[in-house]
Amino acid sequence: MSTSYRPRFEHLHGALRDAVHPGEQFTLGYSAEQSRFVRFNQAKVRQAGDVSQASASLRLVRDGRQAEQQFTLGDDPQLDRQRLHDALAQLRQTLPLLPADPYLKLDERAWHSHSVQEEPLPDFDEVLALVEQQAGDLDLVGIYAAGPLCRGFASSYGAFGWHQANSFNFDWSLFHANGQAVKANYAGQTWSAEAFATRLRLAREQLQHLGRPAITLEPGSYRAYLAPAAMDEIAGMLGWGGFSAQALATGNSPLQRLYNGDARLSPLVSVAEQVSGSLSPAFSDEGSPRQDLTLIGEGRALERLTSARSAAEFALLANGADSYEAPCALSLAPGSLATADILEHLGTGLYISNLWYLNYSDLPAARMTGLTRFATFWVQDGQIQGPVSTMRFDDSLYNLLGDRLEALTCERELILSTSTYGQRQTGSSHLPGALVRGLTLTL
């Protein structure tokens, strides 16, 4: 059924081209999904359902003014055309009431982009059988979501982009009888029963450690290993303006010192916006082709994410970033530490599976604060001793990924966005784990 989405979008695009008046310019965005959702509790299916939906975003431009409206689409092409014409009529009424936009900058290139990633989706019966076989005796709570995602873009200048990709995302927790939990995730575009079983087996092993007496630590600096899921929380914080051209130009980026050349990260750190091959489309919501960018190379700031609006406001070159200028496919280069050797190299310190409730405690210093949660363990002489009571950390990125960074793992984890607010998202991160010689716990 997903193969019918592109003809629907093309039909809508054709109707819009026929309806615009001389002097009007437009951009048309399109978003669709066909998803299966399953909610598990105690490793049993408690709720299952399918979602098939599509929507469009129409922007009308004339005489330096712009206005935008979103509307839902259905299965009736005639009704969809009527919704398009209604949106167009409302935007024509709105435009004369608006001032000219001084930073309006449309991409006038007639670019074309086409990507269809149709890797076979997991067989649903196989997923259920694996959950029953591998976790039938556990209190597993989670959500499984899978199906094709589609994104489209067209403009009056002749640009046309289409992106369609299959993906799955299984996000779950295993609960111990004492109320503590291990959080885990398996996501991607190519399903492997073996890889899923490995993730589940690791979570089961960590669950057993949660049964040991909790260990309370005093505030201080501790040697620590941050698993990819914990690194994803840190990477997500950097998306809040860290690489944004607008934030950097106005002095509001947490990586201001890095981009100004006043600070460096470890030479082990290389960060890219790796759009090619990712779940994200190769074009932005503003209507420009996306490209792979090297944001940080061996600890030094390089490129930044520049939207068309920031390019116009600060006299920069746009590079396909969305309006919010956050990474859509963040990739941290791997290191040389084997996952099997993590505990040995950690020696004595913290094994942190997840971080929680992060925020900036000092944004100019890239200092973050948050909580350890979901299977944080105390390790002594390479052996897990027991779970650590939830504690707050407060430390700077320039420490964690700077002079305190000892190693990154050679294996990385692909983490897809679990957000389903309004629709499933296409954002992702590809991250290794990190071994640091000091993480500051405050209480």
UniProtKB/TrEMBL annotation:
Residues 219-441 form the Metalloprotease TldD/E C-terminal domain. InterPro entries: Metalloprtase-TldD/E_C (IPR045569), TldD/PmbA_sf (IPR036059). It holds the Pfam family PmbA_TldD_3rd. One of its GO terms (biological process) is proteolysis. It comes from the Bacteria. GO terms for molecular function: metallopeptidase activity. PANTHER family: CONSERVED PROTEIN (PTHR43666:SF1), TLDD PROTEIN (PTHR43666). This is TldD/PmbA family protein. It comes from Pseudomonas parafulva.
